[in-house]
Amino acid sequence: MLTLLLLLFCSLRHTLQTCSWETCNKWTEEDGVINVHIVPHTHDDLGWIKTVDQYYYGAKPQLVPVGVQYIFNTVIDELQKSPDRRFSFAETGFLWRWYNDHGDFEKHKLQKLVKTGQVEMIGGGWVQNDEAASHYVDIVDQMTLGLKKLDLLFGECGRPKVAWQIDPFGHSREQANLFAMMGFTSLFFARIHYLEKEARLKNKSLEFVWNASDDLKTQILTGAFYQDNYGPPEGFCFDALCGDDPIMDNPDMEGYNLEKKISLFVESVRKQASFLRSSHVMLLMGSDFQWTNANTWFTNLDKLIRYVNGNATHQIKVFYSTPSCYVKAITDASTHLPTKEDDFFPYASSNVSYWTGYFTSRPTFKGMIREASSLLQLCKQLDAVADLGPEDDADVEIMAKASALVQHHDAVTGTAKENVTRDYERRLAQAMKEGEVVINDYLKKIYPRGSDKAPRHHLCPLINETICNAIKDESTFAVTVFNSNSRSFSGLVTIPYNSKQAMVMGPKGERVPVQLMKTFQVDSLDTNVRAPYELVIPVEVGPLGYATYIVDNSTSTRSTTPQPSTLMPPKQPVSIQNDEVILAFDENGLVSTLTVKATNESHKLQQAFFYYPGVMNGTQPSGAYVFRPDGQPIGFEKAELEVVTGPFVKEVRQTFNSWLAQTIRLKKGAKHIEFDWIVGPIPKEQKNPITKELVTRYSTDIKNGAIFYTDSNGRQMMRRQRKFNPSYKYADTEPVSGNYYPVTNRLYIKDENEQLTILTDRSQGATSLDGTLEVMLHRRCFADDHWGVEEALDEPGDGNGLVVRGTHYVLYGETKTAAAIHRPLAVDIFHRPVLTFATVQNASTFAQSYKMEFSAMTRSLPEFAHVMTLERWHRMSLLLRIEHIFQSQEDAENSRPMTIDLQDLFSQFKITKMTELMLAGNRNITNYTRDRPTRYSGDFRIVLKPMEIRTFQLHVQWL
């Protein structure tokens, strides 16, 4: 394995440049001598206590007296004073901003430092993304954005070899897998469970080879830092933010401390080396927003290196280095390293500090991120398919930057201050407006049949709240349904509606039967601005396509009128059914039984809400990061019911109290049940408010024991066992939060025959009891958890507290066929149709003037395949990612290698040539594999193995 990693290190060398990994300061191979790699670096969050702009400029110094622009300025100047000095930069988002703020002279200085090896780029993503709450599509997108910018600025030397995830609060197996597929040779991070840290110190296994995928057999050399942080050893932080003394080496001066400093350093190095398997030690010099005065740092580090090396009795050689040089050193030494197959969740910093609350924190923001990501994928496709111009390319980049920014490990996690989160939300909202511009530019080009100008189409950002001001006063309007999925969409869309009559015309001029029903009146949602009705429309949309439906509210004998709703009396048995299942409710208004029509078998399926009171006092309260319940959960035992039936949708609407309600929905032809929950504002007592963390539980008779499964960033599934971890001896100090795991889009329990699967519309935290799945929906905390935010997680919402609405998609069925349903469904949920609305003056004229339906693909892909990415890459080329969405042995039909023919797959362009790239698009795959051609010029058939993502640069001719 290490031989292979060394070959990978050597494979990308460029003879005309001397990148950092080619110009490493020399180490010694002398027995008994410890090589100390001094790695100067800075960790710069793109938002946390301050906004990204405030951090860059140094605004609000009373919060944190730092400015990232000054770090770049001072480091670049100081590096030029000595060719031995090194520095590593990680976050491309800040680097790109600095680069564009400066003139050619300053840019050239940085470029020269990179190309001569003094500056190394590590990580290279736009941000260091979170690994619990980020979806794999978003991870790949933000890494691709950052790495593409580095490639543009620095070429070969700007292509990082080392993945750098030093601050996220736990680490996922899929993240490691994605890094390996991007061509990274190694990965470093700081935070691991305190018990696993103890075990790894004892076994000298801080460095190991991570087997990141059972399907793809990917591996990546991984290192967890010796310290519990990513800063310098105690006593050697030479930054204005620290209190350590400098090295005072003049014996005639008061405060002389040279011998003391050197002795402390030597002791620290020897102690760290005793826990490692090679003669090399990496010491990080820098931390959060440090190095605003690089002269102070380098002056003291120069002294440290000179004085330690000047005394041979220390048997320590110290030199400036970079992470890639450190990896090169330990691979050259053929160090034997252990392996790991599981992941690093949950993360705990102590026996009472389980960082599992952030899996759910700020749930509306998490939902907004997923919505913005889906819109970004659509707009990238539209830009590519229609060959839109540079202005639309720029709009898409604004969207991409906003989506990348919020993958930051203090953004999507919900662990930034309230005003910083609002800044993230503002950027996402602006990105969505840019998306509306792209959609309209696309329709200008595609929509008209002749010379007619396409009408303005509007997104409705509050459609989740049954609000769409664009059509509020319109009697006739067009709703265009965009499908960014590479499979056809056949299903239902629901829109806010303001009339008691509705007639809908489909894209072929046909009358479309619809369902009109009253909006669920919930106390926590403002009924004055919500539409009084919802209109359910069955639609058919081709892959990467759209279809337009015209809605008319004029009175007609053919108009649809509202379906009746029935308010059920207490203790009245209730059931609803569709083609697949019958769902029964007990006398308290709670779900009790599911009957599968195909087999006529009934199964226990219960769902109920609870909340955990949170610890408020002591050393570890429950807060933005940490989930720490105080006692047993408190349940909600009864609900008032309202039943709505119709030809397409059957609903049971539950009202538990003024701040908790739910719609349980069966759709025609659907195998899943929708649990559409509305939570909030969680009550806040006037005196001594109590933290409340609301969960939902789904209970069955499935005999899963203590085993359950959660996804890893939305891709491979991870086996979990309650009160057990394969990497350390479990300690039952926090029996609830210590068994919570991140869920990006699904989790399940199963036995030999039956499986319960829950798919989510956003990232959440979850756990399992026997036969039960528990998912946390919302949190309102009234104490800070003491991990840096210095602010309670008490989201104001409209001033009374936050209301959140979301959906769980629940599947119950045979274990052997479950994956065939939940794998495609997860893709469908991510690519939920995007709806736009336009005013219509005359329906028949409108239909004659515009293309009412369109598909950018000539055929749907089979269920195992997914067009993950289609975007403009360069002016005359596109980037295509296509993936196999099944794991091995999941499904009898789909869990095997499959062939896809890309020839004539797309209707708007012809592929003339394609080149295969690594996952992030910044490296040709030639250097990593010899088992398949990288250039295709005639035969465009490709084979996809389970869980494989293949990336291609397409040279195309638009038709």
**Rg measurement, Å:** 29 Å
Oligomeric form of this entry?
A: single chain
Question: Main sheet: which strands, in order across?
Answer: 22-29-30-31-32-41-38-37-34-35
- The dominant shape is globular
Terminus-to-terminus distance: 47 Å
CATH architecture of the largest domain: Alpha-Beta Barrel
Q: Class of the largest domain, according to the CATH hierarchy?
A: Alpha Beta
Write out key terms for the chains shown.
Immunoglobulin-like; seven-stranded antiparallel beta sheet; ten-stranded antiparallel beta sheet; Beta-galactosidase, Chain A, domain 5; alpha+beta; 959 residues; 3 domains; 7-stranded beta/alpha barrel
What would you say this structure looks like, in words?
One of its GO terms (cellular component) is lysosome. One of its GO terms (molecular function) is metal ion binding. It holds the Pfam family Glyco_hydro38C2. With 959 residues, the chain is α+β, with helices and mostly antiparallel strands. Strand 30 (649-657) and strand 31 (660-667) form a beta hairpin. Helix 6 packs across helix 13 (390-405) and helix 13 runs antiparallel to helix 14 (418-446). The protein is globular and about 100 Å long. Mean pLDDT is 94; it is low at 1-15.
